[in-house]
Amino acid sequence: MQSLSGVLASSTLSKSLQEVLTVTTNTCIDISSTLKKGSLAGILGMAGNENVQGEEQKKLDVISNDMLKSALLAIPEVRAIASEEEEDIVPAHTNGEYLIAFDPLDGSSNIDINSMVGTIFSIYSKTGNQPATEQDFLIAGNQQVAAGYVLYGPSTMLVFTTGSGVAMYTLDVDKSEFILTQESVSVPKDTQEFAINVSNQRFWSENIQNYTHDLIAGKEGPREKNFNMRWVAAMVGDVHRIMCRGGIFIYPWDKKDPSKAGKLRLMYEANPMAMLVEQSGGKAYTHTQRILDIEPTGIHQRVAVILGAANEVDKCLSY
Ligand code: F6P
Ligand code: MN
Known about the structure:
Layout: H1 4-9, H2 15-36, H3 41-44, H4 60-73, E1 78-83, E2 90-91, E3 98-106, E4 117-125, H5 134-137, E5 146-152, E6 156-161, E7 166-172, E8 177-182, E9 193-195, H6 206-217, E10 228-229, H7 235-245, E11 248-251, E12 264-265, H8 266-279, E13 283-285, E14 302-303, E15 305-308, H9 310-317
Parallel strand pairs: 1-3, 9-10, 9-11
Antiparallel strand pairs: 1-2, 3-4, 4-5, 5-6, 6-7, 7-8, 11-15, 12-14, 13-15
Helix pairs in contact: 2-4
The protein binds 6-O-phosphono-beta-D-fructofuranose and manganese (II) ion.
The site of manganese (II) ion has 4 residues, from strand 3.
């Protein structure tokens, strides 16, 4: 059984990228232990463990953000970070080689019901030695040097890519290290399973309404096959299911709030997941373009997301 540290050490990745990946994933192991404490973490996780009364309890998404932020800012390889929990980018070392964008705790509304959540990360390399600006982050997803997520479920799993396929690791809690449990993840081209929040149906475009109508019509409809539906309500959980057994995940544009292109964030949700899905043989699009080709306009930009089984994504876009 190969550990993540062994795989990284024998890879051709630069030492500096190995360090960023090691620090990111080790921090996720710490986040995983914190999550196991549940609502006690806000109390126990605070300095000295003594301040039970009077002090505001930190929420787990804020705690996770603080953990990743302090761990990454501490290493010289990091130029800057961008996080769902930080309004602006946080510059670190002017000589740092990497920019890291992350969603520290995706699906955080699931925390209240003790259900699946995860950390999603996206890494870019950056040359030069100027202090980082938001503009530095506004690079298309096809330039990511690594992307991945850690899923905090019944077991904690790391799924990541550095641009040549996707591997899955499972946390060995006794040793506090990730062990390689699946190489070469592959998303089948066809599927009979979809994920979309149907309660938004009336707000969708006509194409998505027609497409889902035909899925639900099953064997008797134009698709001539039955479809199953799943919705974890944490992108990381829904995408993980697709990485394990295929499917299509859709968070479309909707007219609930016309100022938003969709609900999900490009830099730390759509881009890293799109890279993982493409590296597994799937596709990831908005209604009109490949997600990885979008030129970002802001670090918290939202996009519509249609990803998963290649033929099913094509079918969805053909409506
Ligand atoms: O981060 C946003 C997010 O929580 C995703 O993880 C998830 O896919 C989606 O929102 C859930 O949305 P809804 O509240 O519509 O179910
Ligand atoms: Mn999220």
